[in-house]
Amino acid sequence: MRFMQATGLTMSLILLPIQMVTAAAISCPEAKILFQHEVRREDRGALCSGAASALKFLQSLGLTAKRPIKVAVEEHPLATKGHPIYGSYDRTDDIARIMSLSAIRRSLARPTIYEQPLDEAHYLGIIAHEIAHAVVQQNTRLEEISNAAQEYLAHATQMAVLPTIKRQQVIDAAGVGAWEVNDVISEVYMAFAPERFATKCYLHLTGLTDPKPFVQFLLTHKWRYLTVGGAEDSRVAIEPRS
Ligand SMILES: [Zn+2]
């Protein structure tokens, strides 16, 4: 899930002339996306592009879409536990729900992500984040892996699909390096500082000589916390902490 970094959620009652140019359940030609209902042309373009970028990065980690990814583009504000969000993935119905960019802009005067203004490039990152959740779920044999592991991979993917200059802006503003030995990768840290969490995950993952063994470890991880260990290889070895 991707938390909004802004408060004061307001709902607009303006009805836009929506051009539904696609039929329901149309797939992107470049990605295995299955839309759950009609999608405007501009939204379809963003969704297909963000998904394709995510799938390309995930493939480099050994993760592929085993079946079509169900996506619902939402025109209303989303929330979890009362907290506004831009998107979510629910493993129980296997649907990634993502607010359209126009819906986000109707909801917030100045939307932000990772402490940066939310522009088209960052919106593709949000799409990639939710697509990553769906693909990760398709690649684990567990009913559910830990949220920390899920979010690690989703945020790393979100960062990876950003243009280099945008990604560097996030990294510079976050002012942190990769996860280090004895660091605890947790949802709590993510909730307090999502831009630092994302930066740490991206730098850690892309700093690995071969990320695939670590990714496979995450896919079998169901403990709540991950502690970066590593008597022998601090970058790869990671141990569960119950
Ligand atoms: Zn997430």
What does this structure look like?
The protein is built from eight helices and eleven strands. The chain is an alpha+beta fold and 242 residues long. It has a single domain, classed as Neutral Protease, domain 2 (Orthogonal Bundle), CATH 1.10.390. The model is unreliable at 5-19 and 230-242 (pLDDT under 50). Bound molecules: zinc ion (ZN). Zinc ion (ZN) is lined by residues 1-2, 129, 133, 151, 154.
In brief:
With 242 residues, the chain is α+β, with helices and mostly antiparallel strands. The chain has one domain: Neutral Protease, domain 2, CATH 1.10.390. It has 8 helices and 11 strands.
Keywords summarizing the entry:
242 residues, alpha+beta, Neutral Protease, domain 2, six-stranded mixed β-sheet, three-stranded antiparallel β-sheet, 8 helices, globular, disordered C terminus, binds zinc ion
Let me know the average pLDDT: 85
Structural class, please?
alpha+beta
Helix and strand run? EEHEEEEHEEHHHEHHHEE
**Ligand set:** zinc ion
Number of domains: 1
Q: What gyration radius follows from the Cα positions, in whole Å?
A: 17 Å
Largest sheet: 6 strands, mixed
**CATH architecture, please?**
Orthogonal Bundle
- Per DSSP E runs of 2 or more residues, the count of β-strands stands at 11
Beta-strand content = 15-25%
Shape: globular
SSE layout and pairings?
Blueprint: E1 2-3, E2 33-35, H1 41-60, E3 69-74, E4 78-80, E5 83-90, E6 95-99, H2 101-107, E7 112-113, E8 116-117, H3 120-138, H4 147-160, H5 164-174, E9 184-185, H6 187-192, H7 194-206, H8 211-219, E10 225-228, E11 238-241
The structure holds zinc ion.
